[in-house]
Amino acid sequence: MSAPQPVLSGWHPDPSVCRVGDEYYLVTSSFAFYPGLPIHRSRDLHEWELVGHALVDESWLPLGPVDVSDGIWAATIRYADGVFYLVFTVARGRTGSGLYVVTATDPAGPWSPPRELEGEGIDPSLFFDDDGRAYLTAARDSTVADAPGPGEIWLREFDMNRLELIGPTHNLWYGALARTWVEAPHIYKKNGTYHLICAEGGTERNHAVTAARATSVTGPYTTDPRSPLLSHRHLGDTATVQNVGHADIVETPDGQSWAVLLGVRPIDGHHTLGRETFLVPVEWEAAGPVFAPREGRLTAVAGATRPAQPPRDWISLRGPAPATVAGSTVTLAPRPTPLDSLETPPFLGVRQHDHSVAFEASLDIRPIGDQDAGLVALQGGNVHLTVHVADGEHGKVVKAQHREGALTTTLGEVPASERVRLGIHTSPHEYRLVATVDRVDHVLARVPHDALSTETAGGFVGVTLGLFNIGATDAAEIAFYDTEYRFAREGRVMDDLPGTDLRRSPR
Ligand code: 6LW
Q: Tens digits of per-residue pLDDT, 24-52?
C-alpha cells in the first residue's frame, strides 16, 4: 500500500476546518512568518487552494522580537450566520501571551483587526451551540491544586456580537493520558452529547487524539475511555507518517465526517518539511468519533493521493520584507538585519513542500558591494544553509555555509563570475548547495538532511527556502532573476506565484 500523503504539504500545522455550503475553509499556523494565518479553500477536502491570509497589512499584529517558532499559533476557523471567526494565540517564549479573534464575511479577506480576548493559554477554539450561544475553549497550565494533569481545558461563553468572553470560566478537563499536557481542544455536539476532542502527548512522536464527553457544554466532562482515539506513537520508527494529532472534524453535505490533523514524514528519523496537514475519515458511533475506522491509522486511501501542490505564497519574517515580486524576478532591498535577528531580515521565501525540489535564482555580481546576497534553506533563525555571493580574498565569491547555533561553517567556495546562478537542490537525504559560474556547474556542499530537521533544530516549523540581501541600508538592491521553485525533475513553477509588492508596511 502506498504511503499516506498530506493534503497540504510543507509546514502547515495545527489545521482547523469548517464548511459553508459545499466549500471547506482551512487555516494553519504561521508562527513568526508574514502574512499570517493562510486560509485555504476546497470543495473535496483533498485539493486546497490558497485564498488569502487573515493577518495582512492593517490586520497584521506587530509581533515584536519573537523566535521563528513563536508568533501566531493554532487558529480555529468557524462560521455562523454569514460571519467567519478565527481565534488564535500569539506565543512568546513558547507560551501563549494573548488570545485574539478576527472576523470576515469573505474568508479571502479582508479580516478585521485582531481583538484581544480576556483569557489565557493556547489553542483557542469556538463552539456554536444549537441554542444560539457560543463558547470559547482553550488550553492552559492547570490552575487547581492536585490537578490530574499539567494542562487544563477551560471554557467561557463567547458573545458573538461584542466579540468578548462573558460569564464564569469553567475548567473542563485535564486529559486522558497520565501526566501529559492536554491541548488543541474542539467541541462537537452529536445527539445531545458534547464531545471534546484534544491533543495529548506533545506534538512529537507521542502525539495523540484523546476525548471526553458531557451532557452539558460546561461539563462535567468524563474521559472517553477509548482514548487515545488516534495516534501513530505505537507504529515504530519506520512508519512513514508520525506525530499525528491535533485533529478538527468537519461534516460533508451528505453527512460523512472527516478530520484534518497534523503529521510529519520523517526520513531515517528526521523530518525537514515540518508538520503537514493530513486527512482521515471519521465515523460517529454512540461512544463518539471513530478516527480511521477499520484501519486505526492514516492510510493512502484515507489521505490524499494527489501530487503535492507547490506553495502559492511568498512569506517573510515578522512583517513585510523589503521586496517586490514581478513574475520570476524578485527584488530585495538591503537591510543590515541578519537572518538570526529577531527583527525583519531582508528575506523572502516559500515553504519547502516536498522532499525533492529545486530552488534557484540568478544574480548579477556587479551591483553587489559589501553585502551578502543569495539563497537560504532556513529551518530556524540560527539553523540554516546558505549559498550566496560574498567578499572573498580576491574579489567576489560564491560561498556555501552551514549555520548551526552560534557556529557558521564554510563548506565550499568558488570565485564568482559576472552573473551566477545559485541553487538549493533537495532530495530525501540531502541538501545540495550548487552554483553555475561561467557555465560551469559546481556542487559547493552536500549536507545530510538531518542538519535541517526539526529533530536537530527543535521548534515548530519546517524548512523555508528563500532569498536574502544583507547589507548596509545604502547597499544595492539585488534583483534575483529567473527565480524558480520546482519539483526536482519538473519545469518551473515560480511564475505561478502572484506578483506581490511586499514592501507595504503595516500601519
Ligand atoms: C500548538 C500546539 C502545539 O499551538 O504546538 O505541541 C503549538 N502542540 O497545539 C504550535 O504549533
A: 999 999 999 999 999 999 999 999 999 99
Let me know if domain 16-247 sits in CATH 3.40.50.300: no
Please check the confidence at residue 392 and state whether its pLDDT lies above 70. Answer: yes
User: Choosing from 183, 354, 413, 484, which is the catalytic residue?
Assistant: 183
Distance (Å, whole) CA 321 – CA 326: 15
CA distances from 135 to 19, 27, 131, 189, 222 (A): 19, 19, 12, 13, 19
Decide the pairing of beta strands 407-415 and 395-404.
Answer: antiparallel
Spans of all domains in the chain: 16-247, 316-493
Residues contacting ligand 1 via CB (< 6 Å): 13-14, 29, 73-74, 122-123, 183-184, 199, 202-203, 246, 460
Res. 504: pLDDT tops 50: no
CATH class of 316-493: mainly beta
Closest listed residue to residue 257, CA positions, set 215, 181, 195, 185: 195
Q: Which three cell numbers stand for residue 249?
A: 472534524
Which helix H or strand E contains 481, and what residues bound it?
strand 478-487
- Per the listing, cell 489521505 goes with 303
Q: Is 118 considered catalytic here? A: no
Active site residue 22: no
Q: Whose CA is nearest to atom 9 of ligand 1?
A: 184
